[in-house]
Write the structure tokens for this entry.
Amino acid sequence: MNDFPTPAEVDALRLSLEVAARSVGFSLPLAVLAAWLLTRARFPGRSVLDAFVHLPLVLPPVAVGYVLLIVFGINGAVGGWLRDRLGIQLAFTTAGAALATAVMTFPLMVRAIRIALENVDVGLEAAARTLGAGPWDRFFTITLPLMLPGILAGAVTAFAAGLGEFGAVITFTSNIPGVTRTLPLALYTAIQSPGGEAVALRLAILSLVLGLSGLLAAELLARRMRRFLGR
Amino acid sequence: MLRVSVLKRRDGFTLRAEFDAPTPGIVALFGRSGCGKTTLVNLISGLLTPDEGSVRLNDSVLTDTRSGTAIPVEKRRIGYVFQDPRLFPHFSVLGNLRYGQRRTLARHSISFDEVVSLLGLTGLLDRRPHQLSGGERQRVSLGRALLSQPGLLLLDEPLASLDVARREEVLPYLEALRDRLSIPMVYVSHQFDEVLRLATHVVLMESGKVVAQGTLGEVSLRPELRAIVGPDSVGAVLDGVITKTDPARGMADLQVGHGTLYVSLRDVAVGSRVRVQLLARDIILATESPRGLSVQNTLQGVVAEVSDDEHEAVLVKVDIGGAIVLARITQNALEALRLRVGTAVWVLVKAVSTRGHAFRM
């Protein structure tokens, strides 16, 4: 117990943070786009897109990982192309773990951003229009800043949830120490090894602390932004 | 000239409106709540598109469904002051004011300093919208619209969200705008006193239709107005010029048509233009020159028209020479005096009854 944290634990923590951060960075712009399409755009197939975005919530994470393996695996339709053309490999890599995490946390993020967008007064956008602001101008000077509290809250929540993503990550990228063995995977490995209970407990507590601080940070941030906007 | 001719169907409501208004000038869209006034200004602004029709401002076609013209809202250069101020909460007052100004390509004929001083915004520039009172917010909203250098300003009941005290605080600013800047305005209201104080032209609306239009003086004589404002607010609106003042008594001589009215009005200079509304219920008619009365105004005229009003009363239009006044009298009085078109009458107006009904224009 004296050698806490062990190099393996540090690795797992560092990997979890890296994977969660990369997944948020990757999915944030897409989540804003998806939220916008689902809230403001009227097009055929909107409910299909809605269902598709929420799919990871109801699918077993292992199934999501498996689908990713089929599509983005070394011999998968997209995965093969990425490897041959761009030299990028996702399966069994840290980047792949981030992708799996991004897919799993996407619904959470879209949900938070969507609520934020629904709360943006379209009257303010109409006012900006009468003042000479075109569509992109309006989006970046009015809509986006007013959505910012929700976007930040969504990002922090997704980050906190991403720290603990397990099923999709282990299925898509396996459990490689130092590459894809994030906190939950290290925890799982510890439970599976004889005499690993102490390590497992420490990792569980670490996960708890991380998750809790993530949620608290999200709430704090949202409150600050609301005060800034005078609400 | 602003020329509007539009048809719009929406949720079981049909708006069919056609009107012309001279520019510059203030045209009031007046009618009860729900008669389609806001829909009409939204059609002018471009925020709504008509099913059929056109909107023209001076030489430019803003909307024409026949030729498929629809200039986008952001390129119309039409300022819009909404009922709620709609200030951007994430900008300061200064940021709000600059928002439209930065985005206009037009020559800045209305300067920042002019707007700030005209609307009394100097001390507010660093504040955030949520730190302002309702009246202040609406003034900022007005300034923001003006600084976008609009060729036309739409005001959709800008005072409706304010209480009476705040309305009285903002109204003088609107009057100052009218007097100092020559921007044509469309002013939506369901308060006739606002129309009286601000408008040059009036478009009367009822359930999605224009029922009367013209100068305020013309429209004030129309029976359609009575249905909207109620019988007690009916009265001819006369525009005149001050010929003599009596500051000690707070009175002034107002030349209207060929006659002179002694009106209750303070702080007014000789030569200034003044508008007065003579309520029909306050007016007395006589067939002989009256004597020994406290009434200060006696104008000679000729009965031009008699029409039925409610409850055994009639409305009598009297031509006082270049102007028309409206009087409400009972059916009995009409018969007793044997009034008919062409009868010579004296119109009696108590000077005190003009108090609060006379405004500098």
